[in-house]
């Protein structure tokens, strides 16, 4: 039942840390936006099976239950899964029921779920849970793991914590340091999880399997979980955002630990610090199914707060409407992952925009993304869900297509002034290079593409294989292929400027309309 007030009675100093995740389990079910992995299926030791119904939220706590059923023992586990970060402080308030044959762990596990690294903040052993171990798995020492034993009563409420920094792990019990190590320290994104465990014959280290004295119902109780990011890795705050559907947008309740909520559906849009390919972003994502409940995310601050992050990730929203012109001379890296359509504008610094395109089979022509950058030296990348790993942690649902090749997606890119680069790895569309010497990159040898100077002064590039749509280029001087760089045969300036449209007003443009006149500016 826990303290029920989400208070840490033995807090650690917070200097040097930023709170970026919190869950007090005060709803009536586990928040799948925060905990996307709830285990189901067989266990590694074969002594029990995982069932999602064995993870229960009630009375202000989450409980992982070991249950003796007519078909055998069952247990539960839940985890942040991909919803983790690189380095941080993790705190959890928990207790373990006594009982022969049961163990479990509060642990950090790789976000890619490939194993190898593992940090066990506590593993209770034996029936009375008076012997408890910290264990660290991974490279950096002889044998498969290091483990250290501590004696205290884990059936009582305790606050467990670990500071995970490059090359160092520091463990705490009730606010007091109890161990630190520089061996086997993970250097990849990790996430927190709670693992139920029923011992098998041979699990003597854990205290052996259940016997006649074992209760038929046994639990791990978790009052709350918090995660912090080191200040030197903290990307900054997420600019004010609105979520929902066109005409029915609502703000998030808190910048990090809260969420936008739709009626009884719970928290379906979340925000936190996320690490993607080793880069830390201020991220927000639709935690419901793609194109369901929260298809739109929009943000257009009138002024740029210095506290705002410069690395921003918007994921699993079908429509992203982002006007960051107010950033001015602040360089931004903006990722729209899994977006079907939208508008993105940046300021006048050297900005980077990545569109990981997605489309529903029933979407028709509504697949257009407009990107407008400013006067700096900018980079725009157009790719697709089937050609990028950025979307993999976020996208899911009946309409989600992880193998989407981008062929139905259309880009409208205005690179502004400056020496800019656009990488076109999916879809088709139009690029206005603007002033300066600009380069467009195509993935493949030059022989794969037909390059044509059109009578209106633009350059057209077509993929002979049909894997991408055609690209019409204005004001672009160089074309870069995997085996050659050539001058664009048509370098005329665009007859009119590409601009972003209001929310919901992105122009419809079917990718099948490949004639030069159809690539609307």
From TrEMBL:
<feature type="domain" description="GH16">
    <location>
        <begin position="5"/>
        <end position="233"/>
    </location>
</feature>
<comment type="similarity">
    <text>Belongs to the glycosyl hydrolase 16 family.</text>
</comment>
<dbReference type="InterPro" id="IPR013320">
    <property type="entry name" value="ConA-like_dom_sf"/>
</dbReference>
<dbReference type="InterPro" id="IPR000757">
    <property type="entry name" value="Beta-glucanase-like"/>
</dbReference>
<dbReference type="Pfam" id="PF00722">
    <property type="entry name" value="Glyco_hydro_16"/>
</dbReference>
<dbReference type="InterPro" id="IPR050546">
    <property type="entry name" value="Glycosyl_Hydrlase_16"/>
</dbReference>
<protein>
    <recommendedName>
        <fullName>GH16 domain-containing protein</fullName>
    </recommendedName>
</protein>
């Amino acid at each position: 039942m826990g303290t029920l007030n989400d208070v840490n009675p033995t807090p650690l100093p917070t200097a040097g840390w930023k709170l970026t995740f919190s869950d007090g389990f005060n709803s009536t079910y586990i928040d799948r936006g925060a905990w996307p992995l709830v285990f189901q299926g067989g266990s590694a030791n074969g002594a029990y099976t995982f069932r999602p119904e064995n993870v229960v939220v009630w009375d202000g706590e989450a409980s992982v239950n070991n249950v003796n059923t007519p078909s055998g023992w069952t247990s539960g586990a839940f985890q942040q899964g991909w919803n983790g970060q690189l380095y941080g402080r993790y705190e959890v308030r928990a207790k373990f029921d006594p009982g022969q044959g049961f163990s479990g762990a509060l642990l950090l596990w790789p976000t890619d779920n490939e194993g190898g690294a593992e940090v066990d903040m506590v593993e209770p052993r034996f029936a009375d849970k008076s012997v408890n171990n910290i264990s660290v798995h991974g490279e950096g020492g002889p044998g498969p793991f290091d483990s250290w034993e501590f004696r205290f009563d884990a059936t009582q409420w305790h606050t467990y914590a670990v500071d995970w920094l490059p090359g160092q792990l520091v463990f705490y019990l009730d606010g007091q340091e109890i161990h630190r190590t520089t061996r086997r320290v993970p250097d990849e994104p990790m996430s927190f999880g709670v693992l139920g465990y029923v011992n098998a014959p041979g699990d003597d280290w854990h205290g052996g399997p259940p016997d006649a004295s074992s209760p038929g119902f046994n639990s791990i109780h978790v009052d709350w979980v918090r995660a912090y990011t080191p200040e030197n890795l903290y990307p900054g705050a997420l600019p004010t955002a609105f979520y929902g559907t066109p005409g029915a947008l609502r703000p998030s309740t808190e910048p990090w630990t809260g969420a936008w909520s739709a009626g009884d559906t719970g928290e379906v849009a979340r925000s936190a610090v996320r690490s993607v390919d080793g880069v830390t972003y201020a991220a927000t994502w639709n935690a419901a199914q793609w194109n369901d409940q929260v298809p739109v995310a929009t943000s257009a601050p009138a002024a740029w707060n210095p506290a705002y992050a410069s690395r921003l990730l918007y994921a699993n929203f079908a429509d992203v409407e982002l006007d960051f012109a107010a950033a001015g001379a602040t360089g931004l890296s903006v990722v729209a992952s899994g977006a079907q359509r939208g508008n993105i504008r940046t300021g006048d610094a050297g900005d980077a925009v990545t569109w990981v395109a997605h489309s529903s089979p029933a979407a028709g022509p509504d697949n257009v993304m407009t990107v407008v950058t400013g006067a700096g030296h900018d980079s725009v990348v157009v790719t697709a869900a089937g050609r990028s790993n950025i979307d993999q942690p976020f996208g899911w649902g009946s309409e989600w297509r992880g193998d989407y090749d981008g062929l139905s997606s259309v880009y409208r890119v205005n690179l502004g002034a400056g020496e800019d680069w656009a990488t076109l790895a999916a879809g088709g569309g139009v690029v206005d290079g603007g002033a300066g010497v600009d380069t467009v990159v195509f993935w493949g040898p030059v022989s794969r593409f037909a390059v044509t100077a059109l009578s209106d002064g633009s350059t057209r590039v077509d993929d002979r294989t049909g894997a991408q749509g055609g690209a019409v280029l204005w004001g672009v001087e160089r074309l870069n292929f995997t085996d050659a760089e050539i001058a664009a045969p048509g370098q005329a300036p665009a007859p009119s400027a590409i601009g972003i449209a209001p929310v919901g007003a992105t122009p419809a443009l079917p990718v099948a309309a490949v004639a030069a006149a159809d690539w609307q500016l």
